[in-house]
Amino acid sequence: MLSLKKIVLVGHFGVGKSSLIRRFVKNSFSDDYLVTVGVHIVKKTVQINNDEITLIIWDIEGKEDMQKLRPSFLLGTSGFIYVFDATRESTYINLSDEINYIETHYPKINLLTVANKIDLIEKNTFIKIAENNKLKIDYFSSAKTGENVELIFNDLAKNLIK
Amino acid sequence: MTDAEKLTLLRDLLLDEDRNFANKILEKVDTLTDTVNIDEKLSQKVEPIISRKLTSFVEEIPVKLGPTITEALSEQIKNSQDEVVNILFPLLGKMIKKYIQSEMKTLSDNINAQINQKLSFKYWYRKIMSFFSGVSEIDFVLADMAKSKILQLFIIEKGSGLIIARYSNTDTIDEDLLAGMLTAIKSFVEDAFIKGDQNLELIEYELYKIYLQNFPTYYISAVISGKFDAVFKNRVENDLFDFANKHIKKNIGNKQYIEQKLKEYFINA
Question: What's the pTM value of the predicted model, to 2 decimals?
């Protein structure tokens, strides 16, 4: 069975949303930072058991506050991936509030939280920081090394067909 | 040991270090002389330096001289507009002529192809019309070619931008991405004009128009070529409403059925 699902990556600017998508779709990475203006849409089909699921991935421009996002870009979404930069505290200091906002306004939508750029920081140190700040983190990833990138999107796809 | 021998021994002892130093200098002078006088050795030393300098010079030219050259050229063009026109006119003229020739050939080929389709109903219709009206056959063909045509139709879910069904008689870029981007553009424009429930209806793209017809949970996007006037818009609008009422309303999840009906309904549109 083939199905189409829209997923949206959200989070502050410069946290690596576009890089994660590029790693997942094209298996490539670039250190050059290109800010996303508006929205960029790509797609990739993944095989989950006997099902094929085409993910239409919306890479929207980063905002410091979920409430500032254009709501129309989030309509009809089946899954969110909230990405933050493990090396920049400002991108995860309000993580709990941001997650609360998503869960309140989009209660039936799958949500995964991802600490990206984990290659640039000592993982155990960051885990302690996360525990101290009570951060809910589903995955640690690195678009640069590719760590966990496939896993994140595949797990989200699995959740979408449950 | 004689005095002379003692003196020699003393001199050897005192001047040994200086002599060694002098010998080393002599050796270095010999090496340098060789390097300077033997072409191969000299080129080994000098070539990498020249190469580095040249590379850096080439890299620096656009940065250091670019603005000056641009400014000088701009000034020169400004001061000698007639000369520039005289130089460019034949080139531009040739380019335009070539383009027009190519377009005329395409048009002529299309007209010939249509006129030569003797078995078609249109051929005989044109012949008869031309005979009775006195209007030439070619004029009928030209009028036919300028007619508006629906090239592609996409039924797209509002919000998500996912395709519900599609009809297309031409190849295009990835339709899922096209539908997503159309939805994003539509959402952006509609968000920008927040006064009232207004919808984006038309996107113009050079020779094509993308007409958007809104429905409560989806919208239909029609890619149209040719003249898009009020009469054609009205016809498309009526056709889309009629199609939505007959075929989409009760079959919203049945992609195969809707696509089959789209094909039947719009193939001659």
Answer: 0.65
